[in-house]
Specification:
Radius of gyration: 32 Å
Strand content: under 5%
Order of helices and strands: HHHH
Helix content: over 70%
Number of strands: 0
Structural class: mainly alpha
Largest sheet: none
Shape: elongated
Distance between the termini: 83 Å
Length: 113
Amino acid sequence: MKPKPAQEAQEQLARRRAALIVQVQSGVITATEAAQQLGISRKTYYEWERRALQALVEALRDRPGGRPATPTEPEREALQQQMQELAEQRQVLEQTLAIREQLTELERSKKKS
């Protein structure tokens, strides 16, 4: 699918910014010159540079090896969700039964008194 013109323009702008950041980092131009070329303040340039370098570090972090986990089939997920709900309902019913047994025992002890 071909990118839309607006997306292409954004891509070109991002690439231009990246190229200028690389030039500053390489000592080819100064941060002030890069900011002027981009039509922004030096402070904004440094914010963009910081974000770009953080993204670079994030992109180069080690990732787990192998293929990504295959998604589970929808039916299996639905069954697991249903099992979880049933387990929660069972716990509530067990608690209700325990309370009923305690109430029944309490009533019996009141009748004996």
